[in-house]
Amino acid sequence: TPPSLLRNFCIIAHIDHGKSTLADRMLQHTGVVDARAMRAQYLDRMDIERERGITIKSQAVRLPFTKSTGDDAGTTYVLNLIDTPGHVDFTYEVSRSLEACEGAVLLVDAAQGIEAQTLANLYLAIDADLHVIPVLNKIDLPGAQPEKYAAEIAHILGGDPDDVLRVSAKTGEGVESLLNAIVDEVPAPVGDADAPPRALIFDSVYDTYRGVVTYVRVVDGKLTHRDRIKMMSTGAVHEMLEVGVISPEPVKAGEIGVGEVGYLITGVKEVRQSRVGDTVTSNVHGATEPLGGYRHPNPMVYSGLYPIDGDDYPTLRDALEKLQLNDAALSYEPESSGALGFGFRIGFLGLLHLEIVRERLEREFNLDLISTAPNVVYRVVMEDGSEVTVTNPSEYPTGKIATVHEPVTKATVLSPAEYIGAIMELCQSRRGQLQGMDYLSEDRVEIRYTLPMGEIMFDFFDALKSRTKGYASLDYEPTGEQEADLVKVDILLQGEVVDAFSAIVHRDSAYAYGVALAGRLKELIPRQQFEVPIQAAIGARVIARENIRALRKDVLAKCYGGDISRKRKLLEKQKEGKKRMKMVGRVEVPQEAFIAALSTG
Ligand code: GTP
């Protein structure tokens, strides 16, 4: 397809604003999928995605669309819809898929208005010079307020509120006008057809049958199925087994040229060898300059994962190896804990990433796991000038510390104006610094703060939601690090430090943290046959204590002899309850206790 007939675009939307539904409707309207084959959220392939209704991996689909308006009515164009992930953990992936497009549909729920994450992605699109087409969705809803939100969008983007398109992805109303607008407004791709090939990898997916499927956008030249290709960040050369386009199932093509979006199947076995953001070229007469913007994914949060049953350790190791085949951002190394035994310290992009990995390990590999409270990464500079990177609080150095550095983020909150006070109070209590505030409309504001990552990543969003009756939305991005006065708080059970409970907190809140955590643990750890003292300490100084009184726990006593099946039931019930317990010394500790640190803030 000549570039003049190509249009590459993506849809930027907040979760639940209807991106998948609109994509489905476009597939249907262009006849790519007939109504019978249509299943909801066609583009979301992974089961977990479908169940959670979120899009993690971007996908691309080719839509042949015949213009129905204007001078070029009757001309058939090829629209490539590139699906972008919507969650803050995957910002880098979003930026790469935007880079593969010339245009973006900004899709906003006409009953909700724009949300902070959408705004953040919109700014990424504007930075990438994409042409933005603003669209209000769900105009069929009785609660829709298209006038109000069109004015808000016009305020952000400039332009006339009347130019904001209105659609219903559910009924299909307005979808054809939108497709016409995409052809009219989104620029055709430009590139040098005679130059050595350069293609941007915007996604890379592991497929059990075919190995790694790499999604690319060709910028210059062409990739043909006879090429041997080279990954420019590593110089690794791979056999090309297949080139094709997605429509919406993979269709082989001899080659893909300037501006085209397609997939490559190569000899690559792990997605790590085919990284999002990397540039593909051919091995002979290849390009010398890669496309800009490649970045190695750096984990933002770390957590320990331990099998409840120590015998499962090899299974966990194999499972992680398998997961890494299709998750380039997952990193792990073995660690051992005095309390939990052998396990792994795992690096994640964010909490959602953590939850997904954990869920997949448990579901797909049938593992019962204990995860420790997640933490961010600290850089500790010692007085002798040496440096320690702390990914596990229990490994916080004990020697003479000169300075401690923590990661910081730039956070944006969008909210109805009536909650400004509550939001500022929350941000202040998390050591935030106000950067600025703008009214998007009479009653909605955008508030910007810098906040330590350790303060925002874990329970901040819940706290924000509860203080704003669910109306505020949040986005944040890492911006660097700052020096901070941090200390390690330890928890002792029966006088022994339990390494898995250690946390790094700001000195000013260490006391409150210790008291709250000791209190939570007292509630969460069941009574045992003996007394269990709980202490919180900074170094040798105890800052809080609680006591779990002893209990003679004899559930069978209730059965008054007799009924054997009833007895068995009770025993089984008790076993169920124990499934998530871990013996720490002589004390049985439930899973929730290990992440209790998260909910004491
Ligand atoms: P993620 O995949 O989680 O990012 O969500 P999404 O933005 O793709 O939203 P999705 O398409 O799953 O739609 C969210 C909900 O809104 C679903 O229940 C849809 O049926 C509904 N929905 C989408 N478009 C419309 C619309 O035009 N009108 C109405 N009434 N409901 C819609």
Automatic annotation (TrEMBL):
Keywords: Cell membrane, Elongation factor, GTP-binding, Hydrolase, Membrane, Nucleotide-binding, Protein biosynthesis. Residues 4-190 form the Tr-type G domain. It holds the Pfam family LepA_C. Its main location: membrane. GTP binds at residues 16-21, 137-140. It is an enzyme of class 3 (hydrolase). Belongs to the GTP-binding elongation factor family. LepA subfamily. This is Elongation factor 4. It comes from Aeromicrobium terrae.
